[in-house]
Amino acid sequence: QLRLVESGGGSVQPGGSLRVSCAASGFKLEYYAIGWFRQAPGKEREGVSCSGNAGGRIKYADSVKGRFTMSRDNTKNTVYLQMNSLKAEDTAVYYCARADYCSDSSDDYDFWGRGTQVTVSS
Description:
four-stranded antiparallel beta sheet; globular
C-alpha cells in the first residue's frame, strides 16, 4: 500500500525552528521527485521545495530560500524539511507529494500525504 506520512509539525515562536518529516512506504522515494507544499487557511496551496530523483540542486520557493533546507535519507525512505527562522506567515499545513519530476504544478504530483500542521505564533 502506498503511503506518505508527514510528522514533526507543531507550534513554535517566531524565529524558532522545526523539522518535518515525510516517510514513504510501498515505494522507494529515491526513484521519485518529492515536493513539499503548504496551505494556509484561506489561501491556495503553494510549493515550498522539491528534490528530484536524480539528485542535483533542490528547488526552493523565494519565500523560504535561506531559511528552509530539504534533505533525503534513502536508507530510511524519508525526506525532511528543516525550517529555521520561522515567521508567522509560515503557518500552514505542510504536505509532501510524489512526482516523476519536480514541477511547479501540483497537478503533476500523483500521491500526497495528509499533512502536518505548523503554527508560528508568539
